[in-house]
TrEMBL record:
Name this polypeptide is given: Cardiolipin synthase
EC supergroup of this enzyme: transferase
Domain of life: Bacteria
UniProt topology in membrane: Multi-pass membrane protein
UniProt keyword annotation of Isomerase present: no
Lineage: Bacteria, Bacillati, Actinomycetota, Actinomycetes, Micrococcales
Keywords: Cell membrane, Lipid biosynthesis, Lipid metabolism, Membrane, Phospholipid biosynthesis, Phospholipid metabolism, Repeat, Transferase, Transmembrane, Transmembrane helix
Keyword field contains 4Fe-4S: no
Residues annotated as transmembrane: 12-32, 44-65
Alphabetical list of InterPro entries matching this protein: Cardiolipin_synthase, CLS_N, PLD-like_dom, PLipase_D/transphosphatidylase
Organism, as annotated: Brachybacterium kimchii
Length: 494
């Protein structure tokens, strides 16, 4: 008691020494803890933040420094991954066409090892790049549902654009179709004006729905990272028709009246699937449903023989996210980039690669591969927009062509084409967040016929873009270069 009284009376004298001791403890602890099992770039960024502002940086590290799922989810994910491998064996394997390059078979084997999903043949696939048209077409498919409708979107909300979709979902539920609906907690809730009406509609029609990755920082009794998100976009009807891609379930101005007035619109790419691949999409949905609801959907509702095997495309699902040991999407992209012989076209709204991907693209360009990168001229995220700009100089100097989708539109599509052999499209950006923090879904499609469809899409995007030259980029203001590089350093803190 006397000691405490003395400390209170001499707080002004003692406080500097306490602060000094705490400062030293935080810095030493950071050096011992931060680099453990972390990329050198990320570790350096965290250490820099902690050394400059230890009383701020260290608490942020405790909050945001762990990229793992919560303990309970990790245990569930182990069960899910095991179950996924077992059920994936019931999906028939397919062989690539004889004229497929040998390296494509290596990519297929890599995907099977990382994500457990086989390559399937006899699939049909159509692309849709018109925003409202894709929502109308998905609604039309839902209206044909007889048994099940499975919906999963990072952002979902009820507005005038999405009303046809939700009306179709409500009608399906009212006639006895089992509807399961998932949406990311943070991704959807931040659009409160459309999020709340959506939940009311789902409840009114007795539709079972769950927010994915609910934000509960102290869940499992430990401080947990709030920005681990489920970024997938999936729709499966009766296990026969599947949709996936980059588009969220919200109007194309993202509920922004100001953006709508200024002409801001998101440009997306969605793919509609039929054939055996739909079982893979459905199985991926089933894993997320189990994680959120605790219900394991019966196998005959998830993996079933396809009634339509008239297609000619080979397809394979590639799931990725913090529930996997490795960055599945990053490994696939890099494998394809190093294998490319003629051409790489990459479309990514958020392009913040790690060093391995940057080197893969630069190496491809240096060895004569024609590399073209599509990004948005106008970014919707300040930090990411400036961070990705910091990579343009190295890419342009290597010979990469950079196409900037002209403002005020925002190119939000995400896909890659390599030579005339393979396409990868889905929800995954080419940024560190998509590699480490977000649960993503990608689809690899082989075949020159599908590549022709993709080239038509690329031609549309190219007609709406302006090519950035190295000469032009070198003339940008010095203060912008400093800002870009600063944001690049901040983006490494994961």
């Amino acid at each position: 008691m006397e000691t405490w009284t003395w400390l209170v009376e001499h707080i002004v004298l003692v406080a500097p020494y306490v602060a000094l001791v705490l400062d030293v403890i935080l810095r030493v602890t950071a050096v011992l803890v931060v680099p453990r099992n972390r990329r050198p770039g990320s570790a350096f960024a965290w250490l820099l933040a902690i050394m400059v502002f230890p009383l701020v940086g260290f608490p942020l590290f405790l909050l945001l420094g762990n990229t793992q799922l919560p303990r309970k989810r990790r245990r569930k994910q182990v069960v899910v991954n095991r179950l996924m491998k077992v059920r994936a064996h019931d999906i028939p394997d397919s062989d690539l066409d004889e004229d497929s390059p040998s390296w494509l078979q290596s990519a297929v084997a890599l995907n099977r090892e990382l994500g457990a999903y086989p390559l399937t043949g006899n699939n049909s696939a159509d692309l849709e790049i018109e925003y409202e048209a894709s929502i109308r077409r998905m609604a039309e498919d839902i209206r044909t549902a007889r048994e099940t409708v499975h919906v999963l979107f990072y952002i979902a909300g009820l507005d005038e654009t999405t009303r046809p979709f939700f009306d179709a979902v409500a009608e399906a539920a009212d006639r006895g179709v089992k509807v399961r609906f998932l949406y990311d907690h943070y991704g959807s809730m931040k659009y409160w004006s459309v999020y709340r009406p959506m939940r009311r509609l789902l409840d009114a029609h007795g539709i079972e729905h769950y927010p994915m990755m609910p934000i509960k920082p102290l869940r499992d009794g430990a401080l947990q990272r709030p920005d681990l998100r489920n970024h997938r976009k999936l729709l499966i009807v009766d296990g026969e028709v599947g949709w996936m891609g980059s588009q969220n379930l919200i109007d194309s101005a993202y509920a922004s009246a100001k953006g709508a007035r200024e002409g801001v619109r998101w440009q997306e790419t969605m793919i509609r699937l039929r054939g055996p691949i739909v079982s893979e999409v459905n199985l991926l949905f089933g894993t997320d449903w189990y994680l959120e609801s605790g219900e394991s959907i019966a196998e005959d509702q998830v993996v079933r023989p396809s009634p339509d095997t008239s297609g000619t495309y080979e397809c394979q699902i590639v799931p990725s996210g913090p529930g996997f040991v490795l960055e599945n999407n990053l490994l696939l992209f890099n494998q394809l980039f190093y294998s490319a012989e003629k051409r790489i076209t990459a479309v990514s709204p958020y392009f913040v690669p790690d060093e391995s991907m940057l080197y893969a693209l630069v190496t491809a360009a240096k060895r004569g591969v024609e590399v073209e990168l599509f990004v948005s001229e106008k970014g919707d995220q300040f930090l990411v927009d400036h961070a990705q700009c910091s990579y343009y100089t190295a890419l342009l100097e290597a010979g990469v062509r950079i196409q900037r989708y002209e403002a005020p539109k925002i190119l939000h599509a995400k896909h890659v084409t390599v030579d005339d052999s393979v396409t990868v499209l889905g929800s995954s950006n080419m940024d560190i967040r998509s590699f480490l923090l977000d649960m993503e879904s990608s689809l690899m499609v082989g075949g020159t016929d599908f590549m022709e469809k993709m080239h038509e899409v690329e031609d549309v995007y190219r007609s709406r873009s302006r090519e950035l030259t190295l000469e032009e980029w070198r003339t940008r203001p010095f203060w912008k270069q400093i800002l870009d590089n600063t944001c690049r350093l901040a983006s490494a803190i994961v």
